[in-house]
Amino acid sequence: MFYGCSPLFLAKNTLRFPASIPPAQRGHRPHGTAGQIPALGRKCTMDLHAAYPALADLRARARHRIPKFVWEYLDSGTGFEATKARNRTALDRVGFAPSVLHGEITPELTTTLFGHDMPLPFGIAPIGMSGLIWPGAEGHLARAGARHGIPYAISTVATQSPEDIAPDLGQHAWFQMYPPRDPDIRTDMLNRARTAGFTTLILTVDVPSASRRERQVRSGLTNPPSITPRILAQIATCPAWAIETAKRGMPHMRGLDKYANAATQGLSTTAHVGYLLRTAPDWDYVKWLRDAWDGPFIIKGIMRPQDATQLESLGADAIWVSNHAGRQFDAALSSIEVLPSIRAATTLPILFDSGVETGLDILRAIALGADYVMLGRAFHFALGALGARGVDHLIDILAKDMIANMGQMGAKDLRSLPPAIELP
Ligand SMILES: Cc1cc2nc3c(=O)[nH]c(=O)nc-3n(C[C@H](O)[C@H](O)[C@H](O)COP(=O)(O)O)c2cc1C
């Protein structure tokens, strides 16, 4: 039995809430409407917007349903978590002048990216070991991306391989790469991603050295998780997570399985990953990848205007402004603070993330120059709270919040936002 949880324990703690909605193929249910609770076999009339009006409500529920060591992995920053906090405070300091007497408007959330019409201006950022955070996360998120027509980015260190996830991918499937050292592995990874249906490549460059993430260390998390009595006690309080994880088996980085060989035999998972993936690529690596990938190519983790300019000259298709959610460098500026200077330095599309929690945050980033906004933790809070239907609900919350705030500003579409004002 996984993690030593007894069947009796699991039976007694049967889910009281559905862990997931049916897969995409079975159709998309409008949010906030009645849903079936499989365990009880009767209709649930819960209005999700009444029960969970904001991401904060999903986060609070997820916290109780995800074991502590996993929660700390998801939620932690590095150091004093000053950068993580700064992401929030700096977003709050972006204001707008409200508009009145503009008559009725019906705000449109559509935009374009890489020549595609997009129904919404936000998508799902890559999260390593997503399936540890919530069982089956990669599949749930990929299907949600497909249902809603928004990008889903899978991490190199996901718990599903590109092949596993291929049937779930929609039109905007993005593959995030932590750069393999070995050129043959690089080429193989790109081929696998392309064959599986990923259209867009992301190279993440803001992990030039390991980050300490002390809070995560304190929680007892190791890779793979060691089953100590302390970890077991944490799992025992989270039956929904435990049951689903037991069904699927211990999560690990399945996309990298193929590259285990004689040289990596006997290494711990962490050492294996460290051996395979070079954390600090250079400009030549970018050039090599540019030549090797014929679809859109995004560089993720850019915080300086001069880097954006240079990447544009090397043929990147987009710049992704991010401080990795405050997980890497506790002296980094917030990503919203650097966004305007990067906007001024490049004509490329800009993706933006780190600390986005609301539709208003998305509007703030767009007003300051972002073309598209990505969220990482938020989607995992939603999964942890309500399973797959939490993801649909979060998308609905974000869209409704954007529409409500655009109404306050008299903006009929994303091109009509008023100028952002830096509040004191
Ligand atoms: C638990 C966790 C794991 C992450 N893993 C990756 C990863 O494997 N690859 C990557 O490029 N970024 C990774 N990121 C960064 C996210 O892609 C994204 O930049 C960040 O989460 C955005 O901030 P937000 O979570 O506040 O929305 C990770 C972030 C978190 C919180």
Describe this structure in words.
The chain is globular and about 70 Å long. The longest helix has 22 residues. The strands form 4 sheets. Strands 6-13-12-11-10-9-8-7 form an 8-stranded parallel beta sheet. By secondary structure, the protein is of the alpha/beta class. Helix 3 packs across helix 18, helix 7 packs across helix 19 and helix 17 packs across helix 19. The protein has a single domain, classed as Aldolase class I (TIM Barrel), CATH 3.20.20. Helices cover 42% and strands 12% of the residues. Flavin mononucleotide binds next to helix 4 and helix 18. Flavin mononucleotide (FMN) binds next to helix 4 and helix 18.
